[in-house]
Design brief:
0% strand; 122 residues
Length: 122
């Protein structure tokens, strides 16, 4: 019975996160393009549910291709690497908390992309 309750809670949580993503996705400053489909998918997964592994992998790949070394990459991606989701830390999370978290993730992606692009152009 407990497994069913946890499963329902996770489904409800994922539904709310997806709904919030759809409501706020216009705030994400990432240009959509077929050549960046993997990046867009990684951004969506991070913003929707806090899964950062694909986004980190993609950005590490791109920054390595740009000639950055290990320390530079760690420094530039530090906030993303150390990001922790509230939803995984608490048992009961309400819609308002999730919305704040989605907005924080969007802000993090926007700030990170702005920094990475400005450093690339200098």
């Amino acid at each position: 019975m407990r497994v069913i309750a946890v499963h329902r809670w996770v489904e409800r949580l994922e539904g709310i996160e997806e709904e919030l993503y759809e409501a706020h996705k216009r705030e994400i400053r990432v240009v959509t393009s077929p050549e960046y489909a993997l990046f867009e998918e990684a951004v969506k997964e991070f913003i929707t549910n806090g899964q950062k592994d694909k986004l980190i992998a993609y950005l590490v790949h791109e920054l390595t291709n740009d000639g950055l070394d290990y320390e530079d990459i760690i420094n530039r991606l530090n906030r993303l690497i150390n990001y922790s989701s509230v939803a995984t830390c608490r048992r009961r999370v309400n819609r308002r908390v999730l919305e704040l978290e989605v907005r924080d993730r969007i802000d993090l992606v926007n700030e990170l992309m702005s920094e990475l692009l400005s450093n690339k152009n200098t």
